[in-house]
Amino acid sequence: MSDTEILKQNGIVTDASHPERDFYHLLSTATNYYFPRGITEIYSELERSEFDNLVVDEHLALIYPAVMYFYVANDNFELQTRLEKGLKTAIEDGSLEELFFKFDHHKKAFEQANVKKRNLIFLPNPLLPNKVDIDQIRELQMKVIGQKTKH
């Protein structure tokens, strides 16, 4: 799943003619460019960047549903079942979120992002398979960023 493709599908003009590693240089020299990054990426990347004229926008956040997959051998039904059951339990009892924020990098990034004070722009993700429960993803996203789900 490509972030660039999701943005394009939502009518956002993208420029994929440069390698990702060159975007910070491009941003430091050009106007009217932006480089959407994930909350857990942007602050550490900017910290390591050599460009001191770049800032993270403090007012907007793009949010779209995305998934992460665990791959197991086709014939390992027991592991597949255990993973699925364990992840569902961890989501329901809150231990997945707790584990997520025990990772200092994630905790620090979400504190820096201060998502509660941002204008959230929700984008659909037309690249997701039909079987994905988008409502569940949205609910988890909103829970992680500390906002109530809006229906």
Report on this structure.
The protein is mainly α and 151 residues long. The protein contains seven helices and two strands. The protein has a two-stranded parallel sheet. Helix 3 packs across helix 6 (104-113). The radius of gyration is 18 Å and the shape is globular. The two termini are 26 Å apart. The relative contact order is 0.17. The model has no long low-confidence stretch (mean pLDDT 89).
Reconstruct the topology from this structure.
Blueprint: H1 3-9, H2 23-29, H3 39-48, E1 60-63, H4 77-93, H5 95-102, H6 104-113, E2 119-122, H7 134-144
Parallel strand pairs: 1-2
Helix pairs in contact: 3-6
Which characteristics define this entry?
single chain; 151 residues; mainly alpha; two-stranded parallel ribbon; 7 helices; 5% strand
- SSE order in H/E notation? HHHEHHHEH
Number of helices: 7
Structural class: mainly alpha
Oligomeric category: single chain
The span between the termini is: 26 Å
Q: Residue share in helices?
A: 40-55%
Number of strands: 2
Low-confidence stretches: none
Largest sheet: 2 strands, parallel
Structure in a nutshell:
The protein is 46% helix and 5% strand. The chain has helices spanning 3-9, 23-29, 39-48, 77-93, 95-102, 104-113, 134-144, and strands at 60-63, 119-122.
